[in-house]
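RECORD TYPE: inverse folding
INPUT: C-alpha cells
STRUCTURE:
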C-alpha cells in the first residue's frame, strides 16, 4: 500500500514535503508540564518490575561466624540443620571476600514464602554461640528499612487503661472457693460456667458460650484461665473474666505455666514435629522458641520454683536457661553422659537427675545445686531398669522409685532387652538433714501407684495384682528408717488422691468408678465407699474440704456429669450435665501468714468457733427463709390453678346433668350405689401343642 501511495502522487503537482518531513513533537516555548507520570501512566507504573519480585521466599541471615574456607563446610552443615526445620531450602549463598573468608551473612531461598516467614519468626535472635546471635530478615524487608523517616517523631502517649483486679477472687470474706464447669455444646464449641461454692447452693458468677474450642486450664496460682482456639490461646482474669492477653500459636494443643505465672509455654504441631514457644505473660512477647522432632504429650521443660531457671533434657546433657534472657546458664549445657530424667525441687533451686547403667558402671541418682552446679549427693544403684523421681510438695523429701531386675536377657544384636525377676525399691532422700541421708524400702510386688502426703511425712503405695491390690502407708521420721504404719489388703483401686492439706486420702478405681475415703489420723478407717459409675477424674478443692468426681464426655457419651462429696465421703450434690467435659477447682496462692501465725491460729481455734457457728446459723436461717418463701409461692400458684379449675367445673354442672339423664351425680351418696361386676369374653385363642 505504501508503494501504491507513492505511485499515485508521482505524476502530480502535489508537494512531497508533507510525506518526507518528520512531524515536530517539541513543546512550544514557555510550555510548563504539570502532569506527573503517576497521573498519566499510573496503571502501567503499578505493574513495573520491582527489585523484590521473585525473592519473597529469600531470607537474609546476618551475624554468622566469619570462617576460613577450610571451616566453611562445617559452618554450612550447622546452619542448614537449623534452618531446614522451617522448610525445604532450594538455594544457599555465602558471600566471601578475596581470601575466601565468609563476610558474616548469607542468603537462603526456601521453596515457599511461608517457609521463609517461619524461619524469621523462629530463628531471629537465635543464639548460635556466646559471640554470635542471628539476625534473620526477609529479603523483601529492605524496602521497609529504606523508607525509615530521617526525622524521629516521639510516639504518642496512650491513655492509661485500668485493668480489673486479678486477685479479687481471694478477697471473699467467707473464703468461698470457685470452680469452672465445661460442657461441649457443638463441635469445637465449649461452654464454660464459673461458680462460687456458696452453701447451701453454689452461686453462678459467669457463663460464657463458645468460650474455648477444646478445654480450659487454670494457672498455678489461680490468677488466669487459658482457652484454646485455632489461631492460638488466650488468658482471662478479673472479676468478670476479661481477656488479659492472647498468644498467636496456630494449633496449640496444650500449655503450661511457670510456677510464679510469669511465663507461658505453648506446644503446637509443625510439618516435621512440634514447636514450643515461651511467652512473657505480662507483655505477650515471645521470649524463646524451640523445635522438637516428633510429637509428645509430655512437657519438655522443668521450671524452678521461683521462675529463675527453666531446664530441658538434651543428648547426654541438661540445658538450663536463665530468665528473663533465656540464655544458657554460663553459656553452656551441663554434660551428663547417660542421663535419663531430671526434676526440680518444689521449694529450692536443686535438681535431681538419674543416669542409666553404662559399661559395668552402676546407675546413679544425683542432687545438684543451681546455679553453682555443685553435686551435693550421689547414690549408686545396681541392676536398674527404670527410675521415677517423686518430690514431696514441701520439698522435705525426694522419693526415687527404682525398677530393678534379677536377670537381663538380650538378643544377639542387643536391640531387644528383656528384664526378668522384677522388684522395686523406694529410695527416700531426707533433704533437710545434714549430708542428705538415704533410706530404702523394698517391695517385691508390682507397683501400681505412689503418692506423697502433700503436707506431712507419709507416703502411700498401691502394690500387687490390679483386681486385688494392697495399699501400704509408710511414715518417714528423722534418723529412723521409714516404717509401715498400715496396710489395707484386697483393695480394688488404681489411683491415690491425697487432700491438699494432708490427713485424708481417696483410693479410687477410675476403671470401675469406685472410691474409698480414708482418714490417716484415725487408724486409717474407711469413712465412706461411694460409687460413681465410669468416673474418670477426681478433684480436691484447695482447702481439702470437698472432693469432686466426674464422668467426662471424652470417655463416654451418656450419663456425663459430676458428684460433689465432703472430705469424709458424704454426697452433697449430684449433677447430670450433657456433654460434660471437665470440672476444675480454682487454685489459691499460698498463704501470706508465717508458720508461727498459722500454728497460733490452730492452737486457739476454739476462740473462733462461736463467730463461725453464728455465721453458719444465719446462713441456714437465711436459706430456710428463702426455702419457705419459695414453698409459699408454689402453694399460692397451685391454689390459684385449683380454684380456677373448680370454677370451670361448677359452670359445667348443667351440661353434666343433661348428659346424665337429668340426674345430679355430684352429690350422689356412694353408700346407696350397688356395685356389680360384669365379665365378658374379650378374645379367644387356640394353640395346638405337638
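DESIGNED SEQUENCE:
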Amino acid at each position: 500500500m505504501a508503494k501504491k501511495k507513492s505511485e499515485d502522487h508521482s505524476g502530480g503537482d502535489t508537494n512531497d514535503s508533507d510525506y518526507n518531513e518528520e512531524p515536530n513533537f517539541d513543546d512550544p516555548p514557555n510550555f510548563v508540564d504539570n502532569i506527573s507520570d503517576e497521573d498519566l501512566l499510573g496503571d502501567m507504573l503499578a505493574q513495573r518490575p520491582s527489585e523484590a519480585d521473585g525473592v519473597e521466599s529469600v531470607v537474609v541471615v546476618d551475624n554468622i561466624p566469619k570462617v576460613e574456607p577450610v571451616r566453611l563446610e562445617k559452618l554450612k552443615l550447622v546452619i542448614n540443620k537449623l534452618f531446614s526445620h522451617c522448610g525445604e531450602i532450594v538455594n544457599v549463598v555465602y558471600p566471601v571476600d578475596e581470601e575466601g573468608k565468609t563476610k558474616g551473612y548469607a542468603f537462603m531461598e526456601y521453596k515457599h514464602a511461608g517457609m521463609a516467614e517461619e524461619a524469621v519468626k523462629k530463628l531471629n535472635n537465635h543464639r548460635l554461640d556466646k559471640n554470635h546471635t542471628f539476625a534473620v530478615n526477609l529479603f523483601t524487608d529492605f524496602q521497609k528499612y529504606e523508607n525509615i523517616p530521617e526525622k524521629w517523631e516521639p510516639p504518642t502517649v496512650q491513655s492509661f487503661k485500668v485493668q480489673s483486679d486479678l486477685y479479687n477472687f481471694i478477697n471473699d470474706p467467707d473464703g468461698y472457693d470457685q470452680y469452672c464447669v465445661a460442657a461441649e455444646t457443638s463441635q469445637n464449641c465449649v461452654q464454660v460456667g464459673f461458680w462460687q461454692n456458696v452453701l447451701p447452693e453454689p452461686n453462678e458468677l459467669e457463663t460464657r458460650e463458645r468460650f474455648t474450642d477444646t478445654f480450659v486450664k487454670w494457672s498455678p496460682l489461680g490468677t488466669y484461665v487459658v482457652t484454646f482456639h485455632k489461631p492460638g490461646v488466650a488468658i482471662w482474669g478479673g472479676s468478670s473474666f476479661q481477656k488479659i492477653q492472647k498468644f498467636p500459636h496456630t494449633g496449640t494443643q496444650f500449655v503450661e505455666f511457670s510456677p510464679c505465672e510469669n511465663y507461658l509455654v505453648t506446644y503446637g504441631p509443625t510439618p516435621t514435629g512440634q514447636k514450643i514457644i515461651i511467652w512473657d505473660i505480662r507483655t505477650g512477647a515471645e521470649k524463646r522458641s524451640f523445635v522438637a522432632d516428633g510429637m509428645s504429650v509430655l512437657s519438655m521443660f522443668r521450671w524452678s520454683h521461683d521462675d529463675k531457671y527453666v531446664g530441658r533434657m538434651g543428648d547426654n546433657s541438661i540445658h538450663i536457661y536463665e530468665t528473663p534472657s533465656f540464655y544458657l546458664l554460663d553459656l553452656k549445657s551441663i554434660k551428663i553422659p547417660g542421663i535419663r530424667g531430671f526434676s526440680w525441687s518444689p521449694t529450692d533451686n536443686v535438681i535431681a537427675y538419674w543416669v542409666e547403667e553404662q559399661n559395668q558402671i552402676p546407675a546413679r541418682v544425683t542432687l545438684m545445686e543451681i546455679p553453682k552446679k555443685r553435686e551435693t549427693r550421689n547414690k549408686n544403684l545396681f541392676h536398674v531398669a527404670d527410675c521415677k523421681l517423686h518430690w514431696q510438695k514441701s520439698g522435705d523429701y525426694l522419693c526415687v522409685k527404682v525398677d530393678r531386675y534379677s536377670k537381663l536377657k538380650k538378643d544377639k544384636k542387643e536391640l531387644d532387652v528383656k528384664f526378668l525377676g522384677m522388684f522395686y525399691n523406694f529410695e527416700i532422700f531426707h533433704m533437710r538433714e545434714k549430708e542428705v541421708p538415704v533410706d530404702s524400702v523394698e517391695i517385691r510386688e508390682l507397683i501400681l501407684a505412689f503418692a506423697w502426703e502433700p503436707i506431712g511425712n507419709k507416703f502411700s503405695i498401691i502394690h500387687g495384682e490390679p483386681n486385688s491390690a494392697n495399699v501400704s502407708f509408710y511414715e518417714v521420721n528423722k534418723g529412723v528408717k521409714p516404717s509401715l504404719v498400715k496396710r489395707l489388703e484386697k483393695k480394688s483401686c488404681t489411683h491415690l488422691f491425697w487432700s491438699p492439706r494432708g490427713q485424708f486420702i481417696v483410693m479410687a478405681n477410675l476403671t470401675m468408678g469406685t472410691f474409698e475415703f480414708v482418714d490417716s489420723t484415725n487408724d486409717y478407717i474407711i469413712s465412706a465407699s461411694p460409687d460413681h459409675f465410669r468416673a474418670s477424674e477426681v478433684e480436691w478443692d484447695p482447702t481439702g474440704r470437698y472432693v469432686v468426681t466426674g464422668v467426662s464426655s471424652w470417655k463416654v457419651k451418656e450419663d456425663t456429669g459430676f458428684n460433689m462429696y465432703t472430705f469424709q465421703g458424704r454426697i452433697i450434690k449430684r449433677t447430670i450435665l450433657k456433654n460434660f467435659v471437665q470440672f476444675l477447682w480454682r487454685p489459691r496462692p499460698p498463704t501470706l501468714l508465717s508458720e508461727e501465725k498459722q500454728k497460733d491460729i490452730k492452737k486457739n481455734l476454739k476462740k473462733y468457733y462461736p463467730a463461725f457457728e453464728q455465721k453458719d446459723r444465719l446462713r441456714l436461717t437465711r436459706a430456710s427463709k428463702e426455702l419457705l418463701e419459695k414453698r409459699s409461692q408454689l402453694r399460692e400458684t397451685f391454689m390459684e390453678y385449683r380454684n380456677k379449675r373448680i370454677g370451670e367445673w361448677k359452670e359445667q354442672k348443667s351440661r353434666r346433668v343433661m348428659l346424665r339423664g337429668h340426674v345430679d351425680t355430684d352429690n350422689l351418696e356412694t353408700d346407696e350405689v350397688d356395685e356389680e361386676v360384669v365379665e365378658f369374653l374379650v378374645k379367644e385363642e387356640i394353640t395346638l401343642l405337638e
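NOTES: The longest strand covers residues 480-491.
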